[in-house]
Amino acid sequence: MIIAANLKTNLTRAQTLEYLKNLESCLNENSITQEVMVFPSPTSLNAHDGKIIIGTQNAYGTSSGAFTGEIGSMHLDEFGIKTILIGHSERRHILGETQEEIVNKFNFYKNLGFKIVYCVGEPLEVREAGFEYMMEYISKQYEGIDSNYESLIIAYEPVWAIGTGLTPTSEDIALLHKELKKKLPAPLLYGGSVKVNNAKEVLSIDAVDGILVGGAALNVEDFCTMCEIAQGLSG
Ligand SMILES: O=C[C@H](O)COP(=O)(O)O
Q1: N or C: which end of the chain has fewer CB within 10 A?
Q2: pLDDT average, residue stretch 138-143
Q3: Cα 65 to ligand 1 centre (Å)
Q4: Does ligand 1 have an atom closer than 6 angstroms to the CB of 158?
Q5: Which helix (H) or strand (E) holds 53?
Q6: CA 225, CA 34: separation in Å to the nearest integer?
Q7: If you measure from the C-alpha of residue 167 to the centroid of ligand 1, how many angstroms do you get, rounded to a whole number?
Q8: At what angle do helices 220-233 and 196-203 cross, to 10 degrees?
Q9: At the top level of CATH, which class does the domain 2-233 belong to?
Q10: Confidence bin at 235 (pLDDT 50/70/90)
């Protein structure tokens, strides 16, 4: 299974170093063999020696250049980072990234062989408009994305479940994941208010290959517990 922590705009560089040190020890103590990823804030990116895969929450589709406020692939190369989160709902809905910009970024990092965790998901009004409309909405988020890319991981994150404490029912997640797997057979993570107390239920659902955790991952013990839960379920 893939257990990923998106630290968003939290934890300083020093706090991230401490977090990674503690997480690495916890993973070792508990013999965790699952794929564990952490996406720190851009100023906390660093080389890391250990089990944890460090990914970037964002980067512009360039090596370097005149793109004020952005980082490019050369900044990731400095730390050996080869994993990127693309299409997160906060970038789509708060920062206004369009599908076209997302596809450009996807293609740039695909051409560099990055592992891409590609996020899709619907806002509440879309879900309330019915299943068919919701699936059409999510399908548009797949437009332009190379479904055959071998280093692709999809994360389904209903926007209304992110940071709200609300989660779809297990039946809803199972249904959605089944539909999304038909579209694209890549590993499929669920994200949106996953916490220690619901991680087991979510990870037990068919077609859930892992979780992408935001708020609840900020506590390193809790995030490690979720890795232990995944380990337990993987036998
Ligand atoms: O990338 C992670 C997701 O946005 C989930 O965030 P959350 O666990 O705080 O709901």
Answers
A1: C
A2: 97
A3: 31
A4: no
A5: strand 53-54
A6: 12
A7: 11
A8: 20
A9: alpha beta
A10: confident
The structure tokens listed for 68 are 């004020």
Of 24, 35, 97, 157, the active-site residue reads 157
For residue 157 and ligand 1, the question of a CB distance below 6 A is answered with yes
In this structure, is the dihedral angle defined by the CA atoms of residues 117, 123, 124 and 126, taken in order, positive or negative? negative
Would you say the CB of residue 23 lies under 6 angstroms from ligand 1?
no
In 3D, which of 233, 159, 156 has the Cα closest to residue 191?
156
Q: Is residue 177 flagged as an active site residue?
A: no
pLDDT tens-digit series, residues 86-99: 999 999 999 999 99
Q: Are 5 and 217 in contact (CB under 8 A)?
A: yes
Q: Is 230 near ligand 1, meaning CB less than 6 Å away?
A: no
Q: Is the pLDDT score of 19 beyond 80?
A: yes
Ligand 1 centroid distance, CA of 85 (Å): 12
Query: Token pair of 209, please?
Result: 């290959």
